Amino acid sequence: MAETTLETPVETHRPRRIKWGAIGDHTVLILGALLMMIPPLLALTTASHDAVTIHREGLQLTLGDNLGKNFHAAMFEKGGFTQTVDGTLMLMNSFILGIGFAMGKIIISMMAAYAIVYFRLRFATLAFWVIFTTLLLPLEVRILPSYEAIQKLGLTNTYTGLIVPLIASATGTFFFRQFFMSVPEELAEAARIDGAGPWKFFVDILVPLSRTMIAAIFIIMFVFGWNQYLWPTLITTDESFFTLVRGIKQIVLSYTDSQIPEHGQALALAIVAMIPPVAIVVFFQNWFVKGLTESDK
Amino acid sequence: MAQVSLEGIRKVYPNGFQAVQTTSFTIQDGEFVVLVGPSGCGKSTLLRMIAGLEEITEGELKIGDRVVNDVDPADRDIAMVFQNYALYPHMTVRKNIGYGLKNRGTPASEIAAKVEDAARMLNLTEYLDRKPAQLSGGQRQRVAMGRAVVRDPALFLFDEPLSNLDAKLRNQMRIEIKALQRRLGTTAVYVTHDQVEAMTMADRIIVLNAGRIEQIGTPSEIYHNPASTFVASFMGAPPMNLIRAEVDQKQVKINGYDALMVASEAFSGPITMGIRPEDVELDAQGQVKFHVDILEELGAHRLLHGRIDDQPFSVMIGKEDTAHTGETRIKLKPEALRLFDKDTGLRL
Ligand SMILES: Nc1ncnc2c1ncn2[C@@H]1O[C@H](COP(=O)(O)OP(=O)(O)OP(=O)(O)O)[C@@H](O)[C@H]1O
Ligand SMILES: [Mg+2]
User: Fold this and answer.
1) Which chain B residues are Cβ-neighbours of A124 within 8 angstroms?
2) How big is the A-B interface in CB pairs under 8 Å?
3) How far is Cα A204 from Cα A212, in angstroms, rounded to an integer?
4) Is there a single domain that holds both residue B114 and residue B211?
5) Cβ-based contacts of B72 with chain A (< 8 Å)
6) Do B30 and B116 lie in a common domain?
7) CA separation for the pair A267, A44 (Å, rounded)
8) Structural domains counted in chain B
9) Is residue B85 within 8 Å of B35, Cβ to Cβ?
10) Which strands sit side by side in the sheet containing B280-282, from one edge to the other?
11) In this predicted structure, what is the pLDDT of residue A190?
12) Which of B50, B72, B87, B103 is the mutation pick for testing A, counting most A CBs within 10 A?
């Protein structure tokens, strides 16, 4: 006993050994992070120069003095073919698409998962697998029929046409199904005895229990919707429905009147387009990790 | 408060498995009935049929004067306590307890008062604003109880409510639950596989085995007059000794020994004989030789585990009695001997 008590302090006071492994890990991570940071940083520095400089000399490594001007012009100067669209409008459209898509997806997939897991439907398993196979059919694969359908419904150049076809996929349903199946069955039974019908159980118990899950899926889906390019390009021809991601090129980089295209403004918009997805992930990463890894059942 | 009657109740699961064979019994108003039996014997199935969580394949279930076969669980006027408590994790204790009342449209002020009452009764007042995750196992158990009592139902249903607690807390909660049920006078059906719980809490015990009722009776009846070798060996710790014996010209004998008791004339031949370990005494003049292998010290008394010839046998002696391993002699109290059919295990 005495010996061990003598030994322990020696153990703890020994000068910390340098952990080469940890240093190596951090070096790799830091280098990786820097590498990832270069394009946005370049975009930022370049966006601070005027169009002529950029056109003549390419990407800039130093900060110029046109940063504020370029951002202001990108956000508030009307551009495009119709000269009615500015960055603010496109930003708003992007938010409508991102939020509308994420919310629609969550609502639809939660309800689908609820039906599949909690009701003894005759074809519940079949329904699930049918929904599940749509994972193999992302929008890009079924883009022609989708376009045809939306066009026939007269929904081109509407937010509905922009959002609804994107919602049709199984990811959310799948996540919620797995989550619901991990909720103890007794909870539903206790609620039943407590007089909660299907709707009350859903709203009072299942939705609050899923909140971290909902947050996580919201983040994923928001970023996914925000970054959509192909579908919005197809379905919106009216510039007032353009989102940032698709509009940057169309609105700011249009070669009207054989002018030099506004590269600075385009890069400024690109930075604006990056901020919301980054912000949402940074601010909600705790929820995000919680939602996908744990749950307080 | 209500009488519960089951008539010809049977349960076949959709996969064709018959979990409960045709059973009939009646639970009196205010009675505390314990369903006990080994794992998988159909206790939960029976309870869940009474709760309405499992469909009744056949038969008629009455709570009070009402046939409730097709009544929704919410409308059966019952409350259930689950093994894992099934508390709503995102609600405070207050909301957990009041949720059932809220769904029934009880005015908020009345809910608040009733929840306070229930909490006081269960010593939960200071925890009312905590979430279940911030409570100990025993406190969660109490919340589950609170959720049941607050609605003042006609019938309590318990499915192994104490099996997630440690032994000490279990003993304490056992007494509390029983006292609470007494005070409220609510009929209760309690499922457990713990025979101590069954013995101590029940007004009447129903022993189930493989979907069938083996015996219904008061704890004392079940203990002293088991209807079968199954009941004899399931109830009591240590269980009743069961050894081979023989009836010859009305004399009950273990082979090679003198007669132990006089049997009725109705049967003869080989039988199974049962006796509780505490009905056996060490006695140098005893009729039967007993070889002690292990001496188990239990404080208030001691258990001697050993053999009569090649058959396992246990004897319970008081703490003052001296004992040692090895060969000794025992005396079986004739009035405590129970005789069972060798093949069916039924009481003769
Ligand atoms: N949904 C089901 N479908 C088919 N068989 C089932 C189902 N639920 C239970 N069983 C079977 O019915 C029998 C009785 O189950 P039950 O849950 O009533 O047992 P129990 O007595 O409560 O056991 P335990 O003490 O382990 O809880 C078991 O053999 C079980 O395998
Ligand atoms: Mg059970």
Assistant:
1) none
2) 59
3) 15
4) yes
5) 192
6) yes
7) 7
8) 2
9) no
10) B280-282, B326-332, B288-297, B301-308, B311-318
11) 94
12) B103
Return the exposure string of A249-288: e unless at least 16 CB atoms fall within 10 Å of the residue's CB, then b: ebbbeeeeeeeebbbbbbbbbbbbbbebbeebeeebeebb
pLDDT value, residue A268:
86
First vs last C-alpha separation in chain B: 38
Q: Closest Cα to atom 17, ligand 1: which residue?
A: B44
Prediction pTM value:
0.82
- Interface touch B74/A187, C-beta < 8 Å: no
Rounded to two decimals, the ipTM of the complex is: 0.86
pLDDT at A138: 80
How far apart are the CA of B56 and the centre of ligand 2, in A?
A: 17
Site residues for ligand 1, CB cut-off 6 Å: B 13, 15, 17, 19, 37, 39-45, 193
Beta-carbon separation of B86 and A187 below 8 A: yes
Say if the Cβ atoms of B84 and A193 lie within 8 Å. Answer: no
Q: Is residue B112 part of a domain?
A: yes
| Shared domain check, B223 and B286 | no
Are residues A151 and A287 located together in one domain of the fold?
yes
Instruction: Report d(CA A159, CA A166) in Å as an integer.
Output: 11
Residue A91's contacts (CB-CB under 8 Å, 6 or more residues apart) are: A75, A244, A272
Ligand nearest the Cα of residue B42 is 1
Q: Give the residue, out of B9, B10, B12, B13, with the most ligand 1 atoms within 8 A of its beta carbon, to mutate for a pocket test.
A: B13
Identify the domain containing residue B333 by its residue range: 238-341
Asked if residue A259 belongs to a domain, the reply is yes
Say what the pLDDT of residue A107 is: 94
More confident residue, A261 or B232: B232
- The answer to whether the CB atoms of B53 and A189 lie below 8 A apart is yes
Q: Are residues A245 and A122 in the same domain?
A: yes
The parent domain of residue A128 ranges over 87-295
H or E segment at B242?
Answer: strand B241-248
The closest ligand to the CA of A185 turns out to be 1
Do B87 and B184 sit in the same domain of this protein? yes
Could you report the per-residue pLDDT of B15-39, keeping only the tens digit for each?
A: 999 999 999 999 999 999 999 999 9
pLDDT in tens, B54-104: 999 999 999 998 999 999 999 999 999 999 999 999 999 999 999 999 999
Place of tokens 């080994």: B38
B108 and B123, same domain (yes or no): yes
Which of A122, A185, A193, A201 has the highest number of chain B CBs within 10 A, making it the mutation to test binding with B? Answer: A193
In the three-class reduction of DSSP (H, G, I as helix; E, B as strand; rest coil), residue A219 is classed as: helix
User: Where does a domain end: A76, A108, A139?
Assistant: A76
Q: How far is A195 from chain B (nearest CA, A)?
A: 5
Question: The tokens 């998988």 sit on which residue?
Answer: B40
Chain A nearest CA to B331, separation (Å): 52
Q: Do B51 and A193 touch (CB under 8 A)?
A: yes
B38: CATH: 3.40.50.300
- In this structure, is residue A246 part of a structural domain? yes
Mean pLDDT of B312-331: 88
- Element at B81 (helix H, strand E): strand B78-81
Is position A82 within any domain? no
Rounded to an integer, what distance in angstroms lies between the CA atom of residue A67 and that of residue A74?
11
B346 domain-assigned: no
- Written as one letter, the residue type at B297 is E
Residues A65 and A139 in one domain: no
Which member of B51, B100, B133 has the closest CB to residue A194?
B100
Task: Calculate what percentage of chain A has a pLDDT beyond 90.
Answer: 28
Q: A118 and A36 share a domain?
A: no
Asked if A190 lies within 8 A of B133 by C-beta distance, the reply is no
- Give the mean pLDDT of B4-10: 94
**What pLDDT band is residue B291 in, cutting at 50, 70 and 90?**
very high
Domain termination residue (choose one: A51, A76, A101)? A76
The string of pLDDT tens digits covering residues A158-205 is 999 989 888 887 888 888 999 999 999 999 999 999 999 999 999 999
Distance from CA of A39 to the nearest CA of B (A): 44
The CATH number for A187's domain is 1.10.3720.10
* Shared-domain flag, residues B97 and B192: yes
